[in-house]
Design brief:
Helices cover 52% and strands 15% of the residues. It is built from 16 helices and 15 strands. The termini are far apart. Strands 2-1-3-4-5 form a 5-stranded mixed beta sheet, with helices on both faces. A 3-stranded mixed beta sheet has the order 10-14-15. Strands 11-12-13 form a 3-stranded antiparallel beta sheet. Strand 4 and strand 5 form a beta hairpin. The protein folds into 3 domains: 118 residues, Resolvase, N-terminal catalytic domain (Rossmann fold), CATH 3.40.50.1390; 92 residues, Putative Large Serine Recombinase, Chain B, Domain 2 (Hect, E3 ligase catalytic domain fold), CATH 3.90.1750.20; 196 residues, no CATH class. 21% of the residues are buried. By secondary structure, the chain is an alpha/beta fold. The longest helix is centred in the last third of the chain and has 45 residues.
Length: 469
């Protein structure tokens, strides 16, 4: 920029998030450093925009949004921050803000801590490089948080924080039974098992208790929540909880049976039934091997969407000629194939042994320890760079190598855990299939089959089943 008599005008932006309170740059400290920096440069600090208690993971922050509006209206020369990650921890958002908002409006961006600005070519290049590390730090925080929640789930601890389910209080990280609320949950199950409708139960509970508003949805959620039999869930996986159950397993199973019974389904009005509910056993599992489209069920046949053209948005090849299959014939073929597996005792034994063998081959603790070591090395490298003792070329090379190793180890760890969980679920479903399939309703049958089968591919008269193993 060319400076004449005009003073250099800047906006300041400061931020601290709720999970960054231990970092050594509070709101007051950031403001003090911005003010001192501008005074030393003889710049005019027009206004400081403050977001207190807002994450840098997104741009949905009131002060930031207001500043972006103001840079379009007020003639300022630059936006200044104490540190790059105060603007954003997202690589995508950082580059978007600088290039699409600041530079687009002829406003430079300056970060004091990293000692660069976008008025120089080197400064613009450094923005992209350092935003990568801001993204890396954000990803590490997210990963550690997720791993922590998975660990709590496996250990049997509820992870919902202060939002404890009705019937429990959340005290010192644990669920403690609230006797008054637990009594209400017990009554809901009792009323439902003894024939009361969900709407009626809600009305009865509201007349008897005034500590919460019982709606049909909240009653149904209480009936479906396995936390009341001592379970916890995270990312769709259920674990044995540390908390005491309120409802017996037998009563819970009976409630689930009634919730999904054909009698109850037949008693629903048309408006109550989901228009997207699958009406056939294999719906959503069948794919065309020739064009890749799904198969749909209509007029007594499973048909490739591309051939039936019943829904244009699902057509992938208008010229597909793959065969149709009679619904009852394909259903029978798949069911009989599953029953053949049930009778194959040797296969079940081999699968039962496989998780133990996997555990011996893959040392989970060793992998986890190595990942933690890599994270510490990455953090140290970033610290060394920020204090100026590590060249950028060395930093980039080392970070890429460490990050590549970490991703490979994490992928290996996840594959091992997912495979073990899949095999366990597969074996359990096979063991219960023969006794429960015939007496189950359509939804329960579909659940059993989808637990065993990933997808079914049709190629003319050939049927290929991909199992969840």
């Amino acid at each position: 920029m060319i400076f004449l008599d005009k003073k250099y005008m800047v906006f300041g932006y400061v931020r601290v998030s709720t999970d960054n309170q231990l970092e050594n740059y509070s709101i007051d400290e950031q403001i003090a450093r911005l003010t001192a920096y501008c005074k030393a440069k003889d710049w005019i600090l027009v206004k400081i925009y403050t977001d207190g208690g807002f994450s840098g993971g997104n741009t949905n922050r009131p002060a930031l949004r207001q500043m972006l509006e103001d840079v379009k209206k007020v003639e300022v020369d630059a936006v200044i921050v104490y540190k790059l990650d105060r603007l954003s921890r997202s690589q995508k958002d950082t580059l978007m803000l600088i290039e699409d908002e600041f530079l687009f409006n002829d406003v430079d961006f300056i970060s004091i801590n990293e000692n660069f600005d976008t008025s120089t070519p080197f400064g613009r290049a450094m923005i992209g490089i350092l935003s990568v590390f801001a993204q890396l730090e954000k990803d590490q925080i997210t990963e550690r948080f997720t791993m922590g929640r998975i660990g709590r789930g496996k250990a049997g601890y509820f992870h919902g924080g202060g939002n404890s389910p009705h019937g429990y209080d959340y005290v010192n990280g644990k669920l403690i039974v609230n006797e008054f609320e637990a009594m209400q949950i017990d009554q809901i199950y009792d009323l439902f098992i003894n024939g009361k409708t969900i709407n009626t139960i809600g009305k009865l509970m509201n007349r008897k208790y005034n500590n919460r508003n019982w709606t049909a949805t909240s009653v149904r959620n209480a009936l479906k929540n396995s936390i009341y039999i001592g379970k916890v869930q995270f990312k769709g996986i259920e674990y044995d909880g540390k908390h005491p159950p309120i409802i017996s397993t037998e009563r819970y199973i009976e409630a689930q049976r009634l919730l999904h019974s054909q009698k109850r389904e037949n008693g629903k009005t048309t408006a109550q039934k989901s228009p997207f509910r699958a009406s056939y056993l294999l719906t959503s599992l069948i794919y065309c091997s020739q064009c890749g489209a799904r198969y749909s069920a209509n007029h007594g046949y499973y048909k490739c969407y591309s051939r039936s053209k019943s829904s244009p948005k699902f057509v992938t090849d208008p010229n597909c000629k793959n065969d149709n299959w009679k619904i009852e014939e394909l259903d029978f073929l798949v069911i009989e194939t599953i029953r053949d597996l049930v009778e194959d005792k040797q296969m079940i034994q081999d699968l039962t042994i496989r998780p133990t063998q996997k555990t011996k081959i893959i040392d989970t603790k060793k992998i986890t320890d190595r990942i933690e070591s890599l994270e510490k090395q990455l953090s140290k490298l970033i610290d060394l760079y920020q204090i100026g003792t590590l060249p950028m070329a060395v930093l980039t090379s080392r970070v890429q190598a460490l990050d590549q190793e970490k991703k490979a180890l994490t992928e290996k760890l996840n594959i091992k855990e997912d495979k073990t969980n899949n095999i366990t679920a597969f074996i359990d479903t096979l063991k219960t299939f023969e006794n429960s399939f015939e007496i189950s309703d359509l939804d329960a049958k579909r659940m059993l089959i989808s637990t065993l089968i990933e997808r079914i591919e049709i190629d003319g008269n050939d049927v290929k089943i991909q199992w969840r193993l």
